[in-house]
Amino acid sequence: MRHYDVFGVGNALVDILVLTEDSFLKKMGWTKGIMTLVDSETQGTVLTALEGHKKELRSGGSAANTMIALANSGGTGTYTGKVSSDTYGEFYKKDMENAGILFEVPPVSEGHTGTCVILTTPDAERTMLTHLGISSTLTVADIDLERLKASSYAYLEGYLWDIPSTKQACVLTMEEARKSGVKVAFTYSDPFCVHRSREDFIRLTKDYCDFVFCNVEEAKALAGTESKEDAIKFVSSLCPTVFMTDSSNGAFVSEKGNIRHVTGFSVQKLLDTTGAGDSFAAGALYGLAQGFSLERSTKWGNYVASRIVQEIGPRLSVRLMGRQEEILGKA
């Protein structure tokens, strides 16, 4: 069987990207800058209200965005998520494979493929309205243990913790990875995920994780502090290696409690923060899989994230494969 750099597990969602105004969010009553789970009727109401706006489709979900950006950097990966045999499901599989990621979870005939309406305002903030659809029925039976064992890293998203069956699939993946010597990387995904499942996330981090990916707000939520320094110290006390992004300030990386700051890259024009954290994780995982140092892996993560925020949506329009030495130098 082919070897993969990363075995990804997460929600399989078709992203519907729409540029809008703050006034639209206020009119609809949505809290800006966060992800909200909605039912299909609510999402349909939002899409109806957006009639006349340009919409773009992408295969997505947090961990899926990471896997696609990983392939863009030159990494290899296989992704596990659940779709239906509807039009969106067919689009999802084809789009993932066109991006260079293996996606072979059999579609199901009932239900609808999950969708996420991503509303991006002029300040580049994104507000996400997610209908999980059939993605919430992912189970332990969908985890291909042979492909997991043929991978260097398992990467899982915190959004899996919202549904019992996806939670079980997450734990099984982590347990089997540890048994097989596959490194486990977990992203907290969103401060609201952390608040909803704080004690579970602490336990997962301590018992299973070799690597954690989070941003400052997620780390603060887990640590119960307003200090980013104390936050990363707390997460670092639970996990050997922690990557904590800090927006334009770059990122912090901790190895066995030794915390270093790695500067970011300048951004000419900030257009959309969708997928910034996902892209950082992709860059860092690529670096780790290629044997980069932690600092160099973090630096590449910073670069990939700096490029994605200059795009609309979570997909890079430029190819980064083979450009690491050109961009980072030989150091």
Characterization of the model:
Residues 51-317 form the Carbohydrate kinase PfkB domain. InterPro entries: Carb_kinase_PfkB-like (IPR052700), Carboh/pur_kinase_PfkB_CS (IPR002173), PfkB_dom (IPR011611), Ribokinase-like (IPR029056). Pfam families: PfkB (PF00294). 50% of the residues are buried. This protein has helices at 22-28, 40-49, 62-73, 87-98, 145-149, 164-180, 191-196, 198-207, 216-223, 228-236, 276-289, 294-308, 324-328, and strands at residues 4-9, 13-19, 35-37, 55-60, 77-80, 114-120, 126-131, 151-157, 183-187, 211-215, 241-245, 251-255, 258-262. The protein has one domain: Ribokinase (UDP-N-acetylmuramoyl-L-alanine:D-glutamate ligase, 3-Layer(aba) Sandwich). The chain is built from 13 helices and 13 strands. Strands 5-1-8-9-10-11-12-13 form an 8-stranded mixed β-sheet, sandwiched between helices. A 5-stranded mixed β-sheet has the order 3-7-6-2-4.
Question: What's the quick description here?
Answer:
By secondary structure, this protein is α/β, with parallel strands linked by helices.
Arithmetic mean pLDDT: 94
Roughly how many Å apart are the termini?
34 Å
What's the total helix number? 13
Dominant shape: globular
Unreliable stretches: none
The portion of residues assigned to helices is 25-40%
- H-E order: EEHEHEHEHEEHEHEHHEHHEEEHHH
CATH class descriptor: Alpha Beta
Q: Write down the oligomeric state.
A: single chain
Note the beta-strand portion: 15-25%
- Total individual domains: 1
Biggest β-sheet: strands ordered side by side in the sheet: 5-1-8-9-10-11-12-13
What characterizes the major β-sheet?
8 strands, mixed
CATH topology: UDP-N-acetylmuramoyl-L-alanine:D-glutamate ligase
CATH architecture: 3-Layer(aba) Sandwich
Radius of gyration (CA) equals: 18 Å
Structural class: alpha/beta
- Care to count the β-strands? 13
CATH H-level name... which superfamily? Answer: Ribokinase
